[in-house]
Write a structure and sequence with these properties.
- This protein is α/β, with parallel strands linked by helices and 475 residues long.
- Helices cover 54% and strands 9% of the residues.
- It has 4 domains: 168 residues, Rossmann fold, CATH 3.40.50; 59 residues, Helicase, Ruva Protein, domain 3 (Orthogonal Bundle); 122 residues, Zinc Finger, Delta Prime, domain 3, CATH 1.20.272.10; 86 residues, no CATH class.
- Strands 2-3-4-1-5 form a 5-stranded parallel sheet, covered by helices on one side. A 3-stranded mixed sheet has the order 6-7-8, covered by helices on one side.
- The longest helix is centred in the last third of the chain and has 21 residues.
- The N and C termini lie far apart (91 Å).
- The relative contact order is 0.07.
- The site of zinc ion (ZN) has 8 residues, from helix 4.
- Zinc ion (ZN) binds next to helix 4.
Length: 475
């Protein structure tokens, strides 16, 4: 069986590596000045070339030509090609999370490199290491022998302890844009003497969502199927035509119930994945949210030019509020759909709910700037005032101290005058006016009282403490 395109066209030098200019320039300069960082973190989405980059670094460090560009012909470079270099140790942290695996590595750090100049440890999925494994690694990173370089590749940098990160040089690998992927695929297909359809290649580039490895692997599948036809490619990934998804969104948001049922039924006949449909809807919603907020921010990764034109017309007709309000519902239903015994029915019902909810949202005159900016007490008061909720407003002004407020959440301290029905009334009023779920947290336990803002102010004003017997009540 022939090697996959991703493996055959894997870059072996920084010069071959596409994009990632900051990383390339920084590291090439560092190597030229013989200032080799001993800890390197490569962060980026899957399939973006983290391991490939790590191997290029290892190749440069150990090439016998001593140039900053690997010669690709010396014994070290050839051993790298075969994955048999004695000084380049690759560890998949996902399957070696334990401290014992890390200890084995650390024990071998003491020994000099045998085949090249540096011992390079490439730790893939580094965020999967256990806490004790990280601690063991930290000890070595604190004072690494000069012949050792650690390269940590991760999709999840925030799971790597700050103590480790602070001892490493960090690089963010940028996803490829659709044009960059398309150009590379066209180059590869021409090299392979394979005829292709440019629209199909562009579709693959968009489906890969920034990952060159995914793009090349989709190309492998298209070659195996003998077709670069757009429809074939979308079927391969179980994705619907974006125009169909846009149709579905249009039907939902214009309340066309029978059309929604027909479209989802049609999609189910195509044997596509209902979870992928929600994912596609969310991708387009996100695209529209960005477009409505700042048209210059929309990515070309998702939609073709034709699809973008349709999406822009639709987004222009709708309010940003609708997308923002429907987003949490889609997210929740996406999770539910994964475990649903009848996923297509669940998807259809979700689309119908959106149909009716959209009508509900549309039926209420809503000021976009009003709903989603509850960051202060004053904004809440102005909002309730505008909606003529005088009783609630007065209770809020007179009978409570609001200590936290954000969209969907209020924390408050009650006075004894606050009626018990206040909480339910506030929740139901805010939920119905904003179409959001609200949590109202009333703080009234003895522990809560110690954290009351007034008690805090008193504690700060009288750090020595207060003799309570000297205080007289004002009434
Ligand atoms: Zn070499």
């Amino acid at each position: 069986m022939s090697l996959s395109l991703a493996r055959r066209y894997r870059p072996k030098t920084f010069q071959d590596l596409l994009g990632q200019d900051i990383l390339k320039n920084t590291l090439m300069n560092a190597f030229e000045q013989k200032k080799v960082p001993q800890g390197i973190v490569l962060h980026g989405i899957r399939g973006i070339g983290k391991t490939t980059t790590a191997r290029i670094i290892a190749r440069v460090l150990n090439c016998m030509s001593q140039e900053n560009k690997p010669c690709l012909t010396c014994a070290s470079c050839l051993a790298m090609d075969e994955g048999k270099h004695l000084d380049v140790i690759e560890i998949d942290a996902a399957s070696h999370t334990s401290v014992d695996s890390m200890r084995n590595i650390i024990d071998s750090v003491r020994y000099k490199a045998v085949q090249g100049s540096y011992k390079v440890f490439i730790i893939d999925e580094a965020h999967m290491l256990s806490k004790s494994a990280f601690n063991a690694l930290l000890k070595t990173l604190e004072e690494p022998p000069s012949h050792v370089v650690f390269i940590l590749a991760t999709t999840d940098m925030h799971k790597i302890p700050a103590t480790i990160l602070s001892r490493c040089q960090k690089f963010e690998l940028k996803p490829f844009d659709t044009k960059g992927i398309t150009d590379h695929l066209v180059h590869v297909l021409k090299q392979e003497h394979i005829s292709f359809d440019l629209v199909g290649v562009q579709t693959i580039a968009r489906m890969a969502k920034g990952s060159m490895r995914d793009a090349l692997s989709l190309c492998d599948q298209a070659i195996a199927l003998g077709s670069f036809d757009e429809k074939t490619i979308k079927n391969m990934v179980g994705s619907q035509d974006a125009l169909k998804i846009l149709d579905l969104i249009r039907s939902m948001l214009s309340g066309q119930v029978s059309e929604v049922i027909a479209l989802t039924h049609h999609m189910s006949m195509d044997a596509s994945d209902p979870c992928q449909v929600i994912q596609d809807i969310m991708d387009i919603f996100y695209w529209m949210i960005l477009y409505k907020h700042d048209a210059s921010q929309v990515s070309d990764l998702l939609l073709s030019q034709e699809e973008q034109t349709v999406a822009k017309v639709m987004a222009d007709e709708l309010s940003l509020t609708i997308f923002l309000q429907l987003w949490p519902m889609l997210l929740k239903e996406y999770q539910n759909l994964k475990i649903s015994p009848a996923p297509w029915e669940a998807l259809t019902v979700l689309c119908l709910r959106i149909c009716y909810l959209k009508n509900l949202i549309q039926g209420t005159p809503v000021d976009e700037n009003e709903i989603f900016h509850f960051s202060s007490f004053d904004q809440l008061i102005v909002f309730l005032d505008r909606h003529k909720e005088a009783v609630l407003k007065n209770h809020l002004l007179r009978d409570v101290v609001v200590t936290k407020i954000s969209d969907g959440h209020i924390e408050l301290y009650p006075s004894p005058h606050l009626p018990p029905s206040f909480k339910d009334k506030l929740i139901s009023t805010l939920s119905s006016l904003t179409h959001m779920n609200w949590i109202v947290e009333i703080k009234n336990t003895p522990e809560d009282v110690l954290n009351h803002p007034i008690v805090t102010i008193l504690k700060e004003a009288f750090p020595q403490g207060i003799a309570w017997e000297n205080l007289k009540p004002s009434i």
